[in-house]
Write a structure and sequence with these properties.
Layout lengths: L1 E5 L4 H10 L4 E6 L11 E4 L5 H7 L6 E4 L9 H9 L4 E5 L28 H16 L4 E5 L2 E3 L8 H9 L4 E4 L5 E2 L1 E3 H13 L5 E4 L6 E2 H12 L5 E4 L22 H4 L9 H14 L9 H9 L5
Parallel strand pairs: 1-2, 1-4, 2-3, 4-5, 5-6, 6-11, 7-10, 8-13
Antiparallel strand pairs: 9-12
Helix pairs in contact: 1-6, 2-3, 5-7, 7-9
Length: 311
Amino acid sequence: MNILVLGGTRFVGRAIVDRLAEGHDVTLLNRGTRPLPRDDVKLLVGDRADREGTAAVLRDPYDVVVDVSGTEPAMFPGVLTALRLSPPSRYVFISSAAVYDREETPPPFREDQEPVGDAIWGEYGVDKSACERLLKEAFPDRLTVLRPPYVYGPHNADQREQFLWARMLSGRPVYMPGDGSTRVQFLRADVLAEIVLAACEGTLPAGVYNTGERATYSFRDYLELLGEVADVRPELVEIHDPNIPARDYFPFRDAELTLDVSKLTNTAAGHDLPLAEGLRSALDWFHRNDELQYMPTPQEEQWQRAGRSEI
């Protein structure tokens, strides 16, 4: 198939392009500011927020479109204008678990809950929800929406697992929100890429799917697993001051983010990569690429100067 990937040079996009290019012809549309993830893919240079420019660049027909970079409605008019001339048979959109509103319904979230966005993520979840609605209008019968929780793995551009490993391996404390009971869920980027491939090839029917490992983890469970994988015993310091945002010292907000993934699990595309296994290979990659540099946040520096063991 001829597959168009919108984005494709960062973290999740790289993993998706790597998997798709193993058996299909892949073209990327992005601003051309980063190197291509591999030599056997084509590049169209354009800013998808530029309606006329995007429509002019997207002249060829594509069997499938995979949208990794769509984060707000303003990024779609040019793409949709171009695709109306030769509509793809499938459109796969990488959305987010941030579309669910915990004030409406508590987690674990299900696909049948109205995606309106959660204020805890700022405008991100609201905008992703609006993108989903635009695409549903444009491709009502050929749209696949994937809603992942926290994604991890090689090339991760967000300081998450590497943030925590850097502290553990440097013998530094890890400051943890509360007693560490907040639950979260993960998905390795290359497993998401396998799900995208199934959606492109039609083995995963069109529709909306939560994606993620079936298991969920408390912050404490997750931190202990990171330590086990790195063969270190982490020093965990509980932070009980509600006036200090968790993101000032921890890579996740102190808010449960868990999904009901049974819909995907019951399809041919549903499969797990246990978190411990995925983390081991991720740690190897971060080591090889010198991505485990310890850089304390201002809040961490303040606590360390105070020498406090609990806050």
